[in-house]
Amino acid sequence: MEIRPTTDQDLEVFVDTVFAAFGRFRESPAEGDGFLWSAYEMDRNLLAVTAEGRPIGTAGAYSFELTLPGETVVPVTGVTGVGVLPSHRRQGVLSAMMRRQLTELRARGEFLSVLLASEAVIYRRFGYGPATYTERLTVPRHRAAFARPRGTGDAPATGSDVGSVELLRRAECGEILEEVYDRYRRAQPGALSRPHRWWASGAGQPPVSTAPRYVAVHRDADGVPDGYASYSMGESETLTVDETIATDDAAYTALARFALGHDLVSQVVFKHFPPDHPLRWQLADFNAGQLSNHTDWLWVRLLDIPRALTARGWFTDGELVLDVDDPFLGEHGRYLLTVRDGKADCVPTDREPDLSLDVSDLGSVYLGGTAVSTLVRAGHIRAHREGAAALADALFRAERAPHCLHWF
Q1: pTM for this structure?
Q2: What does DSSP assign to residue 93?
Q3: Residues within the annotated binding site for acetyl-CoA?
Q4: Which residues are annotated as a binding site?
Q5: Is 146 noted as a catalytic residue in this protein?
Q6: 207: cis peptide before it, omega within 30°?
Q7: Residues 396, 299, 296, 361: is their CA dihedral positive or negative?
Q8: Catalytic-residue membership of 123
Q9: Is residue 156 within 8 Å of 328, Cβ to Cβ?
Q10: Which of 62, 123, 231, 335 is catalytic?
Q11: How far is CA 236 from CA 175, 265, 267, 284, in A?
Q12: pLDDT digit of tens for each residue in the chain (408 aa)?
């Protein structure tokens, strides 16, 4: 078996191999816009082939930016298109491709890698851990009344809005969507960039794709777009919101009111609803909003632990010794993490550890979306002294829960 990089001439065979690995047929040519592979970076993809040259496995990579706690934006690789033909599974092909990919990412000077896991049990063994989560909120239209805000005194109510909502079609507002999303993702921990070529080629799911959608665009008091909700009407009078993007709570509330106030609707479904969002509390009937489909989304893999830990922002001072095992790459390291005034220093140490953990668990807690104490209680992380988990919880927390909407 040989693992080789691909070129533009390999696009057809790469896409065909991905589809075959998942037991599917594609109905469109690889060339052309409107499909996920139209955003492929063929100089970053890998193809596993037999001695006879037959393709048997694929692994791709996108170039993104990831927003870390503290609104730090860093380059990150988005792993995609990973698959092995059923005839060649459990023969080491996947492990060989993942090891080759991680080695090449390090050679490029990258310190973080992310992916969306089709099967959770596969990618943890390669050092990835679930780091952001998403869910679905369903609200019956007849129970969608908003409560009167309390506790605001004489000050303007939280979520009060002096802006406006304009209804457009997806084909009319591509530039607005791109600009508003970019402003949003730079301030949201866990959010990925959407490079211009994604919007230009319609690569991905709505509203990135050019599939017909209505888009409610929110504008602030000065008329500047600061939020949008992409939606469609389905069966049983269900209005489904693909995603709601807003740069502040007031814009999000206004867009939610718009969707929940739509005529001839029996229920509104908000996809990719942030787990910590206050919308349910804003409804007069707290139980009107039903949460479902809670699932992992973005998985994170640290390739250079000191660089990764010093790149993000921190909100509590403290000191921890982390003993980190990386069995897939055959590495083990012990690091002294020292945080002062929002900045971290991370250096190798021989001091006794406060916490022992796998690199995949470090990926899970890295963005602040998974508490260290949760993984201690689960038996994944070992705390060597009383209070270590509580300190780690305080250190690794983010200014708000990380959330990722981008599908790749």
Answers
A1: 0.94
A2: H
A3: 82-84, 90-95, 118-119
A4: 82-84, 90-95, 118-119
A5: no
A6: yes
A7: negative
A8: yes
A9: no
A10: 123
A11: 32, 8, 9, 24
A12: 999 999 999 999 999 999 999 999 887 666 655 688 889 999 999 999 999 999 999 999 999 999 999 999 999 999 999 999 999 999 999 999 999 999 999 999 999 999 999 888 899 999 999 999 999 999 999 999 999 988 665 544 445 678 999 999 999 999 999 999 999 999 999 999 999 999 999 999 999 999 999 999 999 999 999 999 999 999 889 999 999 999 999 999 999 999 999 999 999 999 999 989 999 999 999 999 999 999 999 999 999 999 999 999 999 999 999 999 999 999 999 999 999 999 999 999 999 999 999 999 999 999 999 999 999 999 999 999 999 999 999 999 999 999 999 999
Instruction: Tell me how far apart the alpha carbons of residues 259 and 247 are, in angstroms, rounded to a whole number.
Output: 18
- Name the residue type at position 301: R
Domains and CATH numbers, the chain: 2-110 (3.40.630.30), 134-295 (3.40.630.30), 312-396 (3.30.1050.10)
Q: What is the number of alpha carbons within 13 Å of residue 101 lying toward its C-beta?
A: 33
**Count of other CB atoms within 10 angstroms of residue 307:** 15
* C-beta separation of 133 from 316 below 8 A: no
Q: Which of 40, 184, 396, 408 is catalytic?
A: 408
